[in-house]
Amino acid sequence: MDNPSPLLSYKIDHRLEQHPDAKDLMINVEIEIIRAGQECDIKRSSFSFSAHEFVKEGYNSLNKEKLYYFLIESGIEDCDTQFMINDMILSVCLIDNGLGGVLTVLLNIRLPSIDPISM
User: Which tens digits make up the pLDDT trace of 33-62?
Assistant: First the structure.
């Protein structure tokens, strides 16, 4: 798979809240998208998954499909969207070791500015 567009940048962070009596890990994906030059126009959304749904079900999950289309409708290319989702899945796999609780995956995306001259 190709690397994301050179003008697109993103960062994935995690926050884990362990609950000793919880049997499963829930995944909350929180997204913030900022277009350069338009810092006051921030798009935000969040999606919730079971660990199994997020990691093992591929793109057969309705929530994962909603996440995918949110990113596409925000102006992110298909290959970049797939790259970011796969990167998030990989990062969750590295953390998920049978813990119970809530893992929040924070996806911060910075898009290049829209240059009306080049359009």
Answer: 998 877 778 999 999 998 888 887 666 788
CA nearest to 24, candidates 47, 53, 45, 46:
53
CA-to-CA dists, residue 25 to 21, 42, 57, 117, angstroms: 11, 29, 15, 48
Which phi and psi (to 5°) does residue 103 adopt? Answer: -110, 115
Cβ neighbours of residue 4 under 8 Å, at least 6 residues apart?
A: 10, 79, 80, 83, 84
Residue 12 exposure: Cα atoms within 13 Å on the Cβ side? 17
In the block, residue with structure tokens 């338009």: 38
Domain housing 99 = 12-17+28-111
- How many domains does the structure of the chain reveal? 1
5 lies in a domain?
Answer: no
pTM for the predicted model, two decimal places: 0.82
Inform me whether the pLDDT recorded for 90 exceeds 50: yes
